[in-house]
């Protein structure tokens, strides 16, 4: 059997004009960076991954070269040690799954269990707009066939003045959409950008917001408290009928294990590009199912990350919806997926994964050459 022959990592930057002003940041983003991981075997096949920056991986290539790319559990253990000592190098796990699929001739969703070859999507917005503009955006999502939309609340002084203004935007969406659209809310309280020193909500703040969201029939409220406050999250979960979701930036699978065992959240949202890779997160799929907790990944990286999370969710999971980062014009499919030869396209709110071996990633080599940075 052909062994791993090489691992290559490259970094790329796409200028954004007009800029993207994310609700969780507040400062306009004038470029979008992507890291591409390529794993090649001795027969010339190539697996592709992307997501985090792969900091700390350099110098560890020899731990993988010469090994069978299909020995995914072995590679996961090595990556978990690198994760402990250095950075989050989980994009390599994605690339190894892609390569293993090309070796076996199977799509990853089938390798993971084959429950389905497609996933239902929710449109994940990222920009803070006026109430009327948010309502118009919701109508566009409905026209495109999305069954659900995630609305962002402001996380800092760079956005709306208070959560009450956020609720006004949500009310406008509900009036426009009626019952045609499930609504989720990302409260943006779980973590902050490095420059942002504003405090997260208190439990009483979150409880007051939950009361408003109940009236608007919101499906879940995401990250309503600081990420470390699991007791507060559980108490909020028990105090409201709105589902409590979180965990998108959690760094260790053991933290998710504790969240599931404690029933602290209704919905867990790991991202295979940021924690555990596909190999680690598939453990969470089974743990969550047995505990009655919903598993539906965060996927705000790029199209490669969306595909990887979709394959796990389709193949092994049973999520009602999967996150689809999509907020025209600032966050279009073309911007999000610039490393790909063709941006991902949903079909009436579904993402079809098809029969292509591996993850189905096809890179735009010309674009990657033009955007490559040192």
From TrEMBL:
Q: Which GO terms describe its molecular function?
A: hydro-lyase activity; magnesium ion binding
Alphabetic keyword roster: Magnesium, Metal-binding
Q: Which cofactor does it need?
A: Mg(2+)
User: Gene3D superfamilies, from UniProt?
Assistant: Enolase-like C-terminal domain, Enolase-like, N-terminal domain
Provide the GO biological process annotations: carbohydrate catabolic process
Q: Is the keyword Transcription regulation in the record?
A: no
Q: Where are the transmembrane segments?
A: none
Q: Which residues form the Mandelate racemase/muconate lactonizing enzyme C-terminal domain?
A: 131-243
Superkingdom of the source species: Bacteria
Instruction: Please report the name of this protein according to its UniProt entry.
Output: Mandelate racemase/muconate lactonizing enzyme family protein
Recorded source organism is Neorhizobium lilium
Q: What is the lineage of its organism?
A: Bacteria, Pseudomonadati, Pseudomonadota, Alphaproteobacteria, Hyphomicrobiales
């Amino acid at each position: 059997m052909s062994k791993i022959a090489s691992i290559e990592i490259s970094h790329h930057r796409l200028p954004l004009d007009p800029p993207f002003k994310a609700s969780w940041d507040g400062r306009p983003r004038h470029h979008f960076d992507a890291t591409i991981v390529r794993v090649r075997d001795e027969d010339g096949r190539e697996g592709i991954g992307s997501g985090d920056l792969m900091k700390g991986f350099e110098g560890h290539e020899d731990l993988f070269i010469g090994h069978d790319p299909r020995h995914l559990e072995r590679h996961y253990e090595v990556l978990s040690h690198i994760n402990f000592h250095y950075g989050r190098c989980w994009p390599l796990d994605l690339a190894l799954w892609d390569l293993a699929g090309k070796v076996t001739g199977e799509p990853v969703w089938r390798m993971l269990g084959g429950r389905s070859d497609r996933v239902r999507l929710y449109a994940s917005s990222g920009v803070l707009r006026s109430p009327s503009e948010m309502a118009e955006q919701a109508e566009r999502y409905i026209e495109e066939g999305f069954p659900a939309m995630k609305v962002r609340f402001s996380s800092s002084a760079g956005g709306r003045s208070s959560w009450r203004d956020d609720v006004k935007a949500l009310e406008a969406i509900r009036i426009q959409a009626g019952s045609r659209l499930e609504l989720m809310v990302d409260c943006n309280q779980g973590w902050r950008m490095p420059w942002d020193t504003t405090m997260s909500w208190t439990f009483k703040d979150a409880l007051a917001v939950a009361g408003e969201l109940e009236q608007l029939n919101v499906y879940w409220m995401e990250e309503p408290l600081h990420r470390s406050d699991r007791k507060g999250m559980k108490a909020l979960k028990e105090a409201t009928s709105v589902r409590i979701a979180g965990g998108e930036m959690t760094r260790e699978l053991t933290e998710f294990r504790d969240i599931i065992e404690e029933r602290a959240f209704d919905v867990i949202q790991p991202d295979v590009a940021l924690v555990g890779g596909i190999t680690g997160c598939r453990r969470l799929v089974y743990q969550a199912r047995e505990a009655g907790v919903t598993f539906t990944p965060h996927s705000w990286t790029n199209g490669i990350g969306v595909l990887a999370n979709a394959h796990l969710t389709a193949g092994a999971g049973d999520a009602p919806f999967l996150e689809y980062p999509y907020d025209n014009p600032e966050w279009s499919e073309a911007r999000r997926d610039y490393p790909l030869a063709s941006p991902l396209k949903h079909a009436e709110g579904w993402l079809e994964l098809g029969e292509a071996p591996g993850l189905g990633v096809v890179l735009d080599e010309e674009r990657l050459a033009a955007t490559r940075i040192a």
